[in-house]
Amino acid sequence: MDYTYLTELSAEEQIQMQKNFVNTIIPNEKRLMFYCELKNRMNQVGVVNIEPFLRPHYTDVDHYVSINRFHYSENGTMPKREAKNVAAMQTMYIDLDCSNHNRRIEHEINNTYCLLQEWIHNGLIPEATMINDTGKGLALFYVLDSSIHPTDKNVKMVNLYDFIYRGLAKLIKAKLEESDLRVLGLDMKVVAEHSRICRLPGTLNTKSKTWCQIIYDSNKRYSLKELRAYLPARECVNKEKKKIYEFNELRNHSKSDSIRLQQMREIQSSRYDWNGYHQIFCFMYYGRARSCMSHKEAAEALRWFNAGFRDRQLEHYQIEEIIRNDRVRRYSGSRIKQELNLEAEDAHRFGLDINYGWVDRDAERKQINVDKKLERDKMVIQAIIESESMNDVAARTNVPKRTCEDIARRYGCNMRNKLKSVDDIDWDSIREEKIRVKHRNIKTAENSTIVTNIELTERMKARSIVNETYVKEYFEFIESELKQSSTRAIEWFQNDVLDNDDTVKRTLLINALAIVADLYDSSKFLKYQIDGIDIVATWATTGFDSNGFIINKKKYDLKTIFNYKSKGNEFIVDIQYKDRNIVPDFSYRTNENRYFDKRYEIAANRMETIRYRQLEEVLSRAVDTCPNSAVKAGLDHLLFRLPYVTNKRFYGLYNTIMEAEDWDDMVNRILENVSKKKNPEIDDLIKFTGHRKTSPFKTRAQRVAQQKNRERLKQIRENGDGNKTVQYEPIKHMKFDIYDGNGWTKTA
DNA sequence: TCAAGCATTGCTTGCTAAGT
DNA sequence: ACTTAGCAAGCAATGCTTGA
Prior knowledge:
The chain is of the alpha+beta class.
């Protein structure tokens, strides 16, 4: 890598070299640059075209040029050589001072040059566009493929240029300091100075009386990105982000082959007894060695490695077998750890485990969030204990009243039934439960859940054609089919539905089937993609099949699901439409309590729910067994009116009855319920007269009024004068019906 | 490979029915 | 006159897929 040290340059050679240099560092030059001659003082000459100034050297004058271009001065005078006057940057210039009083300068320069070439060859530093011998040291030039203009719009680009420029200088400086040539200097202060000047090659260094000359010219051009690749991760102030950068650095730059082989030798010598691991160890070692060596070299390396076992060595034929197989295998650190069954600490010690000691940031964040909420809950509970009313609690804690109520319910501490102290609640176990990380691998086939999702895009079309009767008819049909046999339902669905050309009908059927399946809690459906009607669905969570294999998230068609189900796998399927406002008829959401808006119209009553059917069964059984004739009559009437019982009462009754252990217990509970509560429904039940609400469902008028209110509130909020305590107009159209013994009449 | 984006899911909260 | 609670829309955290 030595270069021939020139003792003399002809005049033509001097000018040619000067031209070459200028054209390289400032290509397409049409702007101002600086040309300086240094005798006793610096003469700055701003020039547009430098060529006329290039000439054979003066023996007593040093020549410099700026590495970047300058703006023309507005008033025609020469601008100062200052950063603010720089028009464009395209070159990075790193000056290495090689002077050493103890040794000959040529010797030092040559040594440095050889080192640089070695680093370039090994990919440690980028190949310089040009390297100059300045007579006193070396000058490296990296030229970009395009120039950067330091305008307001380009701030980021300029910052990046500075960062990379400094980074390169730091990199080279660090390398030099590592090397034996400790005398070398690299002045970081002037690095990334935009208005910097450098010695012009083809001229004489008057101090050392040696020639400044180009000694290496690769003609390479770089993008900032390419240079960036040679630098370590950008230093980051944000600690969190810094960790990520470091982690990515580690992860993305897997260990080189030689380092990994070295690690494996260290691991080998760290232990005496490798019983049971000799073969896999040799196998891994050879695979890695083969990644960077020839077959012959790797074989030799493996034999040496095998000889390194202190307990016993693999037999000759075993080694030869590995060599004969001759495969490249680049095992990762974690894999080596796993295969050799190493302890985490050991793996860390040998540099195999990059995750060692790292904090699970997700879990950390999760804990923080859980703690925040628990703190709030604790505060609210404390306030409930100390306050007179929920309004006070809300005011004290600045938590919405409704949320306070919810918290009260969750922790079983409300106004009527207060806890004595917040410590009566086991906060620790609640916290533990909340922050427990769900790990998908510990799911079993039994409790895996697979959720699908339906999305309809042409639903309007379907709606316009189909009326309620049509839907209802199919509902009933599907319902009966499903009840009879799931196998039959599958066949029917596949043959009659999927192969049917009537896409609208099919869409409805799919919807209806999904809803019916869901209502009957029988498990469940589904999704399908039909040409023309775009029903798209995806598996939403990872589940396990009956053999315990993971089913990854993936798109399946309906038939696959059916096949899967017919093998005895269970599904829980959720259905959600993209835009519930377009298809209110089938509007679903993923909340626990699922409803579709117009179920009253579609199903006519609540009889479609599993709860209803259970309650109905229980009640009819109660009527049969009730010993008291009056209550029996009441129960009978309740049974008769069950579809019209209000939601709240319905669920209350349901919950009460469902807690019963046997029929007698159930009757007692009903009686208790009846006697304890002043309930218009139960009064009615007992007396055979009374009042009831007209409908358990919201009427259309109600919904419209509610929607109006909502919009009004939204508007108020957007106008900026609304707050959470806005008074809504009460809805006043609820009316009561009166039962006069013959029928129901409406009140005014 | 990784960030963006989407789906899921738990939680929040306005409105209002219904209970005390 | 107050509390409790259901519903459902929305929000936010989280976790998985996708596509550049």
